[in-house]
Amino acid sequence: MAGQDISIKTDTGESFVGYLSLPASGQGPGVVVIQEIFGVNKVMRDIADTYAAQGYVALCPDLFWRIEPGISITDQTEAEWKQAFDLFQKFDVPAGVKDIQATISHLRKQSACTGKVGAVGFCLGGLLAYLSATRTDSDASVGYYGVGIESKLDEAAKISRPLMLHIAGEDEYCGKEAQAQIHAGLDSHSRVTLHDYPGMNHAFARNGGAHYDSAAATLANKRTGDFFSAHLSA
Fold first, then answer.
1. pLDDT reading at 54 higher than 70
2. pLDDT of res. 115
3. Of 171, 211, 213, 231, which one is the catalytic site residue?
4. How many angstroms separate the CA atoms of 216 and 143, rounded?
5. 166-180: per-residue pLDDT in tens?
6. What is the rounded distance in angstroms from the CA atom of residue 59 to the CA atom of residue 45?
7. Are the C-beta atoms of residues 63 and 34 closer than 8 Å to each other?
8. Lower CB count within 10 Å: N or C terminus of the chain?
9. 203: left (phi over 0), alpha (psi -120 to 50) or beta
10. Which residues does residue 72 pair with via DSSP β-bridges, in sequence order?
11. 227: exposed, middle or buried (C-beta count within 10 Å: 0-12, 13-18, 19+)?
12. Do 113 and 30 touch, CB atoms closer than 8 A?
């Protein structure tokens, strides 16, 4: 089924847009797809469509709406990278997490959503997926190469539902020291699973990106798929 833009309400009554993709059956567990710094672009919509094809009700919220609604850029030009980093610098993380909670709550109320609701995020979204595990009622969360998680490890005690993180060994935005801090802070947590991808750079799972690696992306996506199958069934 083709995806469509829908309206999501915040707890203060404001509204923002999300891209909704439904499975062929029209029903399934929910997955919130959390954007990178390029907005709800084709990459994110394709990911939502992929989850829908796997039987999930996938919803990708526009988390940059407070700065500029409707951002949809690529990673293909220097100008777009500059715009993306500018958006990243302006982004209000706590407000973004609240928008993710609003998106989760929206999915839970939909008749199409038959089971639990999880979250999966990439880059900036990887950090937000971690924070979804500490600050929202997401039933299971997955973060790909999250940026800045090491600065939020004091929240690890709040994780009560399953969390999986994919860590790129040569991530230019999450260096060796940060990776070591993440492992030290989370390895012993009973609800957290960490996977390392030696030799991989940031965004190794971004199809079409400069650091895309098919084998690593396939492995990470399979692990995510198995994780969601285990934790999001009705």
1. yes
2. 84
3. 171
4. 15
5. 999 999 999 999 999
6. 9
7. yes
8. C
9. left
10. 39
11. buried
12. yes
Look at the domain 4-231 and name its fold.
Rossmann fold (3.40.50)
Please name the amino acid found at residue 181. Q
Active site includes 211? no
Q: Is the separation of the CB atoms in 137 and 49 below 8 Å?
A: no
The phi and psi torsions of 10 (rounded to 5 degrees) equal -85, 175
Cα–Cα dist 76/131, whole Å: 28
Q: Exposed, middle or buried, 2 (CB in 10 Å: 0-12/13-18/19+)?
A: exposed
Listed in sequence order, the residues at least 6 apart from 224 whose beta carbon sits closer than 8 Å to its beta carbon are 120, 142, 164, 166
**Selection from 74, 75, 63, 73 nearest residue 32 by Cα:** 63
Convert the pLDDT of each residue in 75-114 to its tens digit.
999 999 999 999 999 999 999 999 999 999 999 999 999 9
Given its phi and psi angles, is residue 168 left (phi above 0), alpha (psi -120 to 50 degrees) or beta?
beta
Q: How far apart are CA 109 and CA 68, in angstroms?
A: 27
The set of residues, in sequence order, having a beta carbon less than 8 Å from that of 229 and lying 6+ positions away, is none
Cβ burial of 12 (10 Å; 0-12, 13-18, 19+) is exposed
Q: Tell me how crowded residue 222 is: count the other CB atoms within 10 A of its CB.
A: 10
Instruction: Report residue 72 as tokens.
Output: 């949809």
Question: Would you mind telling me the total number of residues written for the chain in this entry?
Answer: 234
Tell me which of 202, 211, 213, 231 is the catalytic residue: 202
DSSP state of 74: -
- Between helix 93-109 and helix 124-135 the angle, nearest 10°, is 70
Q: How is residue 22 annotated by DSSP?
A: -
The answer to whether residue 202 is catalytic is yes
